[in-house]
């Protein structure tokens, strides 16, 4: 991690407060669209995690690919739609196309508000 902070590849300042918590796992960077070249599976097994909540950029590429791989490996996966995005292309709504696929294969598609309500109702912290 030497030289990572303020390198331009560092995490956005407004998210740092959330990423340093004890229950956050950060995997090594990936080189393709899925989790095959990261230590994600090692981290999930190490912490006995079976339920995954996905959000992020490139919904139609990275998020959907990771989700499909995780599902095929037996994990339960949900997505927070309004915390995700895709590139905009002329005449194509790649985000809505990805969400349509994710609605068919994931356990649940949440909005941020719905997920926060679920957390309040289940007392998960």
Task: For this entry, give a set of tags.
about 120 residues; mainly alpha; Rossmann fold; 3-stranded parallel β-sheet; about 10% strand; globular
Brief description of this entry?
With 125 residues, this protein is mostly helical. The chain has helices at 13-19, 40-46, 59-72, 94-105, 112-122, and strands spanning 51-54, 76-80, 108-110. The chain has a three-stranded parallel sheet.
Topology:
Layout: H1 13-19, H2 40-46, E1 51-54, H3 59-72, E2 76-80, H4 94-105, E3 108-110, H5 112-122
Parallel strand pairs: 1-2, 2-3
Helix pairs in contact: 3-4
What does this structure look like?
With 125 residues, the chain is mainly alpha-helical. It has a domain at 41-122: Rossmann fold (3-Layer(aba) Sandwich). The protein is 41% helix and 10% strand. It has a three-stranded parallel β-sheet. Helix 3 runs parallel beside helix 4 (94-105). The chain starts with 12 loop residues before the first helix and ends with a helix. The model has no long low-confidence stretch (mean pLDDT 85).
